[in-house]
Amino acid sequence: MAEKEAIAIVLDIGPSMNQAPPGEITSLQSSLNAITMILQRKIFAEAKDEVALVLCGTADTQNDLADGDSYENITVKRTLCLPDWPLLEMVQKDIQPSSVSGDFIDATVVAMDHLVKGIQGKKGFTGKRIILFSDLGGEFGEDGLEDIVASMKHENVDFNIIGPDFDEESGDGDAKGGANGHKKEKTAQQQAGEVVVRSIIEAVDGAHYAFSEALPALSFFQARQKRSMAWKVPLELGPGLEIPVQGLIKVQAATAKSFKKVYAKDPDEQITTVRTYHLNDDDETEIEKEDTVQGHRYGNTLVPFSQDDLENMKFKATKCLKLLCFSKSDDIKRHHYMGNSVMAFSAQKGDEAAALALSAIIKALYETNSVAIVRRCYSAAASPKIGFLSPHIKANYECLFYTELPFMEDLRQFTFGSLPIKEDNSDLPNKKQQPSSDQLKVMDDLIENMDLSKAIVDEDGDTEEAFKPKLTFNPYFQRLYQCIQQRGMSPDAPLPELSSIVEKSMIPPENIVNNAKPVVVKMKTLFKLEMVKKDKEEKTGQNVFKDGESSDGPPAKKVKVDDDLKGGMEDITKSKVTEVGTVDPVYDFKTIISQKDEDRFEEACKMMQKKLIEIVMDSFGTQAYSKAMDCLTVLRQESIKNSEPKMFNTYLRELKETIVGKGKKDFWDRIVYDKVTVIDKSECPESDVTKEEADRLLEGDVVKTEDTAPTQEEEADDLLAEMD
Amino acid sequence: MAGFDDLPTWGGNFADDDGDEDEGEYQTQTRWGSKDGLIFLIDCTESMFEKSEEQSNFELAIKCAKNVIQNKIISSDKDLMGIVFYGTEKESNSSDFKHIYVNFDLELPGAPRVLELEAFLEEPENNDFSSNYGHNDNYSLSEAMWTCQNMFSNCSQKIGYKRVLLFTNNDIPHSHNAALQRQAIKKAKDLAETGVELELMHMQNPGQTFDVTLFYRDLLIELDSEDTTVLPDPSQKFEELLTRVRSKDHKKRATGRIPLTLGEGMQLSVGVYNLVRTCTKPAAVKLYKKTNEEVKTVSKTVLTETAEVLMPQDLKVSQEYSGRKICFENEEVREMKNFGATGLHLMGFKPTSSLKRYLHTKPAQFIYPDESIIEGSITAFCALLKKCIEKDVIGLCKYIRSKSSTPVFVALLPQEEEFDENNVQVTPPGFHVIFLPFADDMRKVTHENTPRAKTDQVDKAKDLIKKLTRPFRSEDIENPALQTHYANLEALALDRDAPDSVQDLTLPDERGITKRAGKIIEEFKELVFPEGYTPGAKRKATPAGGAAKKAKAESQDIDIRKEAEDGKLGKLTVPVLKEAVKNLKIKTTGTKKADLIDAITDHFDL
């Protein structure tokens, strides 16, 4: 079952929460930011967890425990239910600091009471949690603290506090700043609060985070919404030896919810994707889907597969997890790990004999530094995979991790040149690029100074590894949630800036950056790294166009074909081109019109025109548009050179009609963007079009001046999203 | 990030790489101009036909060519292949050079080519080679190479990558003619200059030697390729030769050229490669039933009600959360994914041991220095590599693969160059890029407290492991499902009666296991299993047709609502759940068990 949690967020809004040195944000604001992130995660990851919000320090009182004397100034602002937009909006807009101070211990009790009552009659809750946001600056009563701790334990409530940094117990007080990272002396009240909270945390095994650590802290509020279904199978270690095991996914890349296409003018309008099938003839004759058959390419041979063929040829397998052999761990290369997940296998629930047998295998694998190579077939419909099981032993459990391995077909044998990193590199052609001892020394320093394994120093002076995967969050998800939330609340606002917390999660810890700085400066003097100057090979239509425009300028050097035409071999052996093909139409076109023996300009133009439309129509998204633009600009250029503007002008006007009519308006937009219009008198005296008329052709079609052509992979992404 | 913001040229250079930026299937070669051309240049003098152990070197070369062609047909169906014989009596080439026979011109290989090559392996005597082609030693190696060059330049299609594989067992051609030797060396240089790479596939007969120092080293040294590594030993066996050919038959195509930033202003450039990538069945094409011609598929987005065709600018994208539809422009989605400049950005170093086995989300990539964008990259890269190996550390980097990729963290795992016993490079020097999971990707797996094994049980398991341990190489195991598909395809294409049977190498050798470890298995069972133990409820796979029917019957007897309330949905089978979903007329996001259960629980509002 899905794990679902009942969470009570207790937020202190008392006066001390609203204080901060100039230019810094208040503890209240930090808290609201963190609460927002928690709620975003819950709502946008579509978790089933329910959340209540308890405010501490409200002017009036509204809770079940208040009796006019105790539990004053505490309000259950929102009762336990699924978090939603109104809750987010409330946190964002409605919560104001108060001038009254509330007792955060009382508030915690109210929250606990509310949780216990709140889940009565509701099914499926597996946990309860209280998250207290407070700088502990308010007064509190210590009465009955033991009872509180006892009932927290009894009810199995997790307790977390996000508040000021706790002082280091060693008394080394100047190591870290106060709340929000700025140095602030703690008040006596705060110090007293800290002592109490510390005792609660210790008693119930709770956790504390500073306001500044809010993002890593999220790991504890992370929705465990991904339900892993156990995959049950007997592990066959040989004929007659079967151990019933079950596998659960341990690691697998999480994906964000996919976007759906909607009609911009009315997102609620239904839209559908229609697929039609066409022959590759001049008319693109449409045919019925029923008249098509699946086929596969065998080189240049097309092989149709009938339904029967497909049925007969299906690879048949049965669900299994079977040992092939054992092997030394060293035989398994880290870079050969395949697939997109790691599974953890343990004995099937309740089968002690299986557990014992598996335990023996796990220990034996561990002690012999071996792994088990297995064939795994997920189901009868899936094709078999090869993978390995490796032992994983912890104090409280043992299991086998399963990771896929490559097949022969998945490996690509590329040969790369040897690098001069050996003792003796004298036989290598790149021996001159061997690093000097100074260069090696500075690299050594860099490694020493950027050691992440002890980069995080906590309040107790203990060090911890930075960028632990377990505590590192996907910045895109957080960014996505941030954007969705803002768009949901203010549909017309532009996207928000990337939150600084997320930005900070993608750079090394400050001490590492500082340590590395002098080393990097030194490196820059020792290593000679220079950008290779290259002629920009931009082939946009505009560039080519401009080159053509200046009549005495160099010929269109950007069109690669000119380069290819140089050089002896190619010229001599150049085969005769008679047609404009799709592969390199610019080359073909230029070759035909350069043939001195006969004038085929008109014919070549016609072929080019036809080819261009074909390229545009066949283009997958905007993929072939650059090529089509090259064709168009070369066509235009050559028309000017040959003083034949009319044909081009007529063509361009027709082109607009044709392509826009056939659903390729985006290519016309590209033409407008690149400002490729008809040829006017100033460019070619034979033209009867004025400059103004020429410009007008593009008017009314003004497109945004930024780059409107999405890159190919994004198009592909969209297409994939569409297929979902 | 100020370090590279002031280098505007990055974008242009990096965006314009030749590799495909998708997940890197073998067969994706859709981009214009990325075709490879490969010519087999085969020595056909008499000594190549001397049989040793049933097989002549000529047959080896032909088998290699056939194997590569079959492979190419499958893995990269846009590549062009040609076969040229030299040292033949007859001639056939565009320049009328003597003793050079262009057997196949450079073209897309297909089923007929494979059949023609097979004929060379048949009796009598290689399709009567001596009468059809003949042998003659008075060839010129220079002219043979010239012929290959001509084939590349005459080719009407644009070829991105040109390579000639030279098969010979003669270590000193033109031994009495220094002029011809000089010409050959000069021609080899010529080839290199026109972008044609020449690879020597030298072979030897038993008792023969192939001394590369006599002639070929001089010839190859002129090529000065960036792939220079130790020259492998000459081959005698088909497998050895094939390994060498295979390692050369793909263009190593970088999927990207990106900066590696070690610190502010300290940037080198690297090429990114996929050394492993899941190879899947190539996508099917749609054919017109009547003519078997390829059919084009056009998809349009329309308004359901009016059938009005919508253009990209008429569309937005949206997600829905608790009743609100949140819409974005496509550009905004792109902007959301934009986290700054493409490349690898060093965060720091960790000991290699921190790279735990379970930190894996997708197959690794590989980086190798690239001097074409930043000069000096090799030196800096080498210093980093050498030191990481020495200190046994990994580099931790933030990695943004392309403009539209969101950042991930990766470990740069240093790799030393490795060779096999024949001096063929098996692992290149560089860094593997290991993708690390985020906290979001790691799931909590709860474990029960279970009994632990005792020493005698563990020791017996160790005996079992010892008996059944053997070296493992992924190269030895073919994907049975894929091979079956190809065998079927080939049979249909080549009009064979039945496909070659495919051996499923993923199946264990049960007889062998019993023979070696049968006794230990029994002893182990006695030690760990209680008497009369039969391993759990063994499930026999139910035939697919029956499951649904059974489900129908079952689901009628089950009160889904009650099961859901009791949290027992997990105990039901997928067909039963599917049937329930159908009966309740609810929508699901997927057909996995978890999705179905989610949908049902949602439906009852639990």
TrEMBL record, chain A:
Pfam families per UniProt: Ku (PF02735), Ku_C (PF03730), Ku_N (PF03731), Ku_PK_bind (PF08785)
Gene3D superfamilies: 1.10.1600.10, 2.40.290.10, Ku, C-terminal domain, von Willebrand factor, type A domain
EC number of this enzyme: 3.6.4.12
Subcellular location: Nucleus
Composition-biased stretches (Acidic residues): 712-724
Entry's Gene Ontology BP terms: DNA recombination; double-strand break repair via nonhomologous end joining; telomere maintenance
Role played: Single-stranded DNA-dependent ATP-dependent helicase.
Protein name: ATP-dependent DNA helicase II subunit 2
Source species: Owenia fusiformis (Polychaete worm)
UniProtKB/TrEMBL annotation, chain B:
Gene3D superfamilies: 1.10.1600.10, 2.40.290.10, Ku70, bridge and pillars (4.10.970.10), SAP domain (1.10.720.30), von Willebrand factor, type A domain (3.40.50.410)
Keyword terms, alphabetized: ATP-binding, DNA damage, DNA recombination, DNA repair, DNA-binding, Helicase, Hydrolase, Nucleotide-binding, Nucleus
Coiled-coil intervals: none
Top EC group: hydrolase
One Gene Ontology term from the biological process aspect of the record: DNA recombination
Biased composition (Acidic residues): 15-25
Residue ranges occupied by any VWFA domain in the UniProt entry: 37-245
GO cellular component, one term: Ku70:Ku80 complex
Catalysed reactions listed for this entry: ATP + H2O = ADP + phosphate + H(+)
PROSITE patterns linked to this entry: VWFA (PS50234)
NCBIfam families assigned to the protein according to its UniProt record, in alphabetical order: ku70
Family: Belongs to the ku70 family.
Protein name: DNA helicase
Organism: Owenia fusiformis (Polychaete worm)
